[in-house]
Model the fold of this input.
Amino acid sequence: MPALDGPRIEPRSGPARQLVVLVHGYGADGNDLIELGRVWQPLLPQAAFVAPHAPEPCAQQPVGRQWFALTFRDPHERWHGVNAAAPLLEGFLAGELARRGLAPSALALVGFSQGTMMALHVGLRLGAAPAAILGYSGMLVLPSENEMEAYATAIRARPPVLLVHGAEDDLIPADALFHAAQSLSAMGIPTEWHLSGAVGHGIDEEGLRHGGEFLARRLGARA
Done:
């Protein structure tokens, strides 16, 4: 399988001092999220942004990509999916940091929907903690409700996490936000959340503002 790649935004001036990796959702590609970098660049002028395309063509969206297939026939397919796709994303993160000469503490992961599943799964297992994980409209993928203790033993990093969700999301209901926040907090991971009223499966201006301020705060603290 080829290495990941996708659109990039360079810092406003000078070499990058921070790296923000944007992990898109099911049926989209990196172009769907890269513009978030332009929205947040005034808050993060020294950050580089990159939005890798997921490795597989999407089965249900011919022009889109997927990190893993979703058939909803197998209750464990998300768990198998995040584990199968994780090595590719991990390799991409390591390569991008090395190419720019940055430490893992200069990294922030941002996900949307399936991308949030990937960002949480990979970001919490990195050998050195990233500065932050920001997840929109997603969920924490667990092997099963009864395996939280086993899941917790695999956690290697505990970066600050912000979860943002639309209250009217009918694709991934907002209950997923509360379940993830509770589970992450139980594992000792500092977790904040924001529920966007009257918002479906998407990101509104308030969610963008909360996300940008969170990234600036966390990356600034680790600079």
